[in-house]
Amino acid sequence: MLMGEYHNSIDDKSRLLLPSRLRTEVAGSTLILTRGVDKCLWLFPPEQWRRISDSIMGSSSMFKSKTRLLQRRIIAPAQECEIDKSGRISIPPTLRESAEMKLKGEAVILGIDSYMELWDIDAYADYLQESETDFMEAAEELGELLSLQ
Amino acid sequence: MLMGEYHNSIDDKSRLLLPSRLRTEVAGSTLILTRGVDKCLWLFPPEQWRRISDSIMGSSSMFKSKTRLLQRRIIAPAQECEIDKSGRISIPPTLRESAEMKLKGEAVILGIDSYMELWDIDAYADYLQESETDFMEAAEELGELLSLQ
DNA sequence: TGTAAAGGTGGGTAAAAGTGGGAAAATATA
DNA sequence: TATATTTTCCCACTTTTACCCACCTTTACA
After folding, report:
1. Which of A6, A110, B19, B149 could be joined to B6 by an S-S link, Cβ 3.0–4.6 Å?
2. Residue A48 Cβ under 7 A from any strand D atom
3. Which residues fall within 8 angstroms of residue B142, CB to CB, at 6 or more apart?
4. Distance CA A33, CA B123 (A)
């Protein structure tokens, strides 16, 4: 199970080290990188990616506008990437820029059960701040859910 | 049952001693450390953590914004940590910083029934002060609830 | 009040993780 | 085709982490 929040920097070759705790959880060295919902990138192990892309394509017709949106935002930008011998992935410039991640900038790497998220550190701080109220609400709801158990 | 309020210091290797009173209450030497709601860290025994994470992940889709919030704020930052031979846990820097806890700084450790909370001593003092009014209100409400019984 | 045991603190060391950069290969440009 | 630029691969160095051990302090009890 992927978990943990890490801060690593992107070097001037657009490479990002995946924390070893996360690396040990993924089988093989191939991952699929694509644009996420919110200003981040998503990084999937291949089987996981297949599940997501199947569920988008499965419910889909290219003649429905919402499907086309999902396809363009999530399916189309996807890139296969390899983990190199030092445990880094190289992030294609177009994807990097779509998440406001800068060369030599700090990135946040999140392990979320079966996939990972990559954020620019400032963009992530902004996101957390903007969503603070929603988070407190969600936490309250979760509290009610738990107390029913 | 976990209880008590303790003050211990974080050493320059980011280690924190868990008071032995709390240690004797937890089975095994593995705990899950994550960001709490409010500016603190939560420390759960594994079964307790499973309850929380199951209830977040169970109702979940990565395509719902509230789920993503809970995943990012609570699930993702989680780390397994081991109690060492001297009874200390090592707090990963990213988590430590998210709760404003400093190397060589004083921490407050709270035992709360089935889990623990870790605070920076100053952040905790600020929290108590800021929430004084809310606390008085909560106490009143509890009073009304109890007198109905 | 002395002594043993438990609790708590600090630090050394080896291994693992992370970082930067050079050189070769691949691709693009003139 | 020659040159420039980007990408990939690899190696060496630095930093961090995990593990262990020694010692100091407090507590319990004779």
Report:
1. B19
2. no
3. none
4. 38
Cβ atoms within 10 Å, residue A111: 26
Q: What pTM does this model have?
A: 0.94
Tell me the CA–C1' distance in angstroms for A123 and D30: 65
- Of A110, A139, A149, Cβ closest to residue B72: A110
Q: Quick one: tokens of B149?
A: 């019984």
State whether A5 and B62 contact (CB < 8 Å): no
A116-139 CB burial, b ≥16 within 10 A, e <16: bbbbbbebbeebbeebeeebeebb
Interface with A, mutate which of B32, B33, B37, B72 (most A CBs under 10 A): B72
Tokens representing A39 are 């200003």
Report pLDDT digits (tens) over B96-148: 999 999 999 999 999 999 999 999 999 999 999 999 999 999 999 999 888 87
